Amino acid sequence: MHDEDTFIYLQMQHKLKKNMLCGTFEIVKLVAKTQQTPEEPKQPNSQTIISKTMHYEEPTQNQSNQATMTKRQYITKVFEITENVTTQLHSGSESGLNARKEVQATSAMFGGKSTTIAGVYVESSKKKLSFLEASEKGFLAKTYAVEFLEAQAATGRITDLAKGQILSVLEAVEKGIVDPALKNKLLEAEKAFTGYVYAGKKLSVFQAMQQRLIDRYRGKMYLEVQWSTGGLINPETGGRVPANTAIDQGLIDKDTLQNLYEPGSNNKAFHSLDTGQKAYYSEILKSCVFDIDGGVYLVPFGDRHLTRVSPTSSHRVCVVSSSQGSEMSAYEAFKKNYIDSSTYLALSKHESQWEEKYIVDANGKSMRIISDSKSGREICLEYALRQRFLEKSEFESYCSGVLSIYELAGVIFSRMVVVEDANSPIAGLWDVTSQKRVSIFQGCQQGFTDRATALRLLEAQACTGGICDPASGEKSRLSEAVKRGLVDEALAQQLQQFEQAYYGILNPQTGKMLSVSQAVQENLLPKDVGFRCIEFQLLTGGLVNPETQERVSFEEVMQSGLVDKVTAAVLKDEKFHTKCLACPKTKRKITFKEALERSVFDCHTGLRLLEATKLHPFGAKAMYHYILAYK
């Protein structure tokens, strides 16, 4: 094993010294040979590794055991992975394949391929424009365009979209890509890439800030741009540097790194073309589309909001062909071989963040779940197998690491056929701002709605089939819902009668299960509770037959006399409907019927979601959220 470690190390050194510009893809290939399983590496770069290998001293023969550990520690630190993963490196485990794909994704995105935003994608014409061209056409203010050009200069990536070339500032000015009036401003920004000359040395952005060669506001802007596009740049080598190495080399300190995305410490320096609001560069980058004609990222402009996720569309558009005018999801582009697996995984991480977990169901059976923390979706893999959304061979490929979790999710959701549930109550909320599914109880906890509104919506769920989990579309009885965090104990107590209304209310004298209306007539259910149950059930498809859980339509209810004429008349006349809910989006009082009319069917579950937003009490931020809610 010691000889193998030595071989791995020497192979890496030889390869890197042979070609300093070999690119991160070469590093990934070397890692692949070691069967390594990185845990979310922070974009290693070949030039970064070279700078570290120059200081590595080969141990003597009598230090072989220590040498092995040193080499492992070396690999661990360079790739910023855990010791446990490094151990797996030598185990030959097949599980490393999955993680290696993710390393390749990170490498492709932050190594050989530029993630600096290259221009604008005009949604109406499906064409790409440089930032200055877009400014001249009135799509964005010139000051916004200059911000993005400064970001390109600060990463050494002034882009000629027409020819697909990467230029220096002087080259861009000579070729007419950049206005000569911007030359000095962009040359100053380019120093973030080439270095600030001071006392015969080239200083990085952070080092220049320490020497007061650049103001802190602009310096932090450059740091945030570099960090979000692959790592801080070492001007001595021109290479990207991951976090641990950056701190070791004095390219940044821990406090500055930790506060890079704290508005109080680092102001948002860019403007979103979608909202006009201030934003970090990384936030805008996540909303970009990838143009396969040139392999560049473009920020979309238009009213279609291509990259915005909604509950009615399963995938957002994030890949375009500006020459063909075609638009598609990352998975579609991957299946059509327009992008490779590395690019697919990199783009998928903009849209989702899948992880695996195990849960135990009501019967004590363990289930394997994959969940997306960004969109609030989840699905049980055993269920996917039963429904043939996933083949056994594909599941085995995932288990062995051949198929990544992102590819697995893409396979499942591309095959799912979701039917809208016309009998669905309001199953959950859709957070307009974060574009995520939220359960009713979570929405109450997070301030989207008040507890009284949450209680009414949960009452409707309980008496129409169970407490809904918008992440998976599953419905649970109260005991299970408490365990899953869909309600708390206090709510469960308040909802018991509504659950009984669905499964039937026992008549203690006859032993017969009664419907809601029958239970009210027998004084086994309070009239106000019974009236709400009848309203909720009829508005979501009909009164529930407790013996079969089948629905009985309003017309059938009238003919059969299950509901008395007075109650039927009140339910039919909307002016008697109580405005018992505060709309989670507008905060105005509405009826349950109005809530159903405002809801949308979730493409993931087929259940109804109600859009929600938090309105801040005052200030410009409140106005932004108010406008966003009505867009």
Topology (SSEs and partners):
Layout: H1 2-18, H2 24-33, H3 46-53, H4 64-79, H5 83-89, H6 96-112, E1 117-122, E2 127-129, H7 131-136, H8 142-154, E3 158-160, E4 165-167, H9 169-174, H10 183-194, E5 196-198, E6 201-203, H11 205-210, H12 216-228, E7 232-234, E8 239-241, H13 243-248, H14 254-258, E9 270-271, E10 278-279, H15 281-286, E11 289-291, E12 296-301, E13 319-321, E14 326-328, H16 330-335, H17 341-351, E15 354-360, E16 366-372, E17 377-380, H18 381-386, H19 392-400, H20 405-415, E18 426-431, E19 436-438, H21 440-445, H22 451-462, E20 467-468, E21 475-476, H23 478-483, H24 489-503, E22 505-506, E23 513-514, H25 516-521, H26 527-539, E24 543-544, E25 551-552, H27 554-560, H28 565-572, E26 581-582, E27 589-590, H29 592-598, E28 600-601, E29 608-612, H30 620-630
Description:
With 631 residues, the chain is α+β, with helices and mostly antiparallel strands. The protein has 4 domains: 2-93, no CATH class; 117-327, beta-hairpin-alpha-hairpin repeat (Alpha-Beta Complex); 354-415, Double Stranded RNA Binding Domain (2-Layer Sandwich); 426-612, beta-hairpin-alpha-hairpin repeat, CATH 3.90.1290. Helices cover 45% and strands 15% of the residues. The protein contains 30 helices and 29 strands. A 6-stranded mixed sheet has the order 2-1-12-11-13-14. Strands 19-18-29-28 form a 4-stranded mixed sheet. The longest helix has 17 residues, at 2-18.
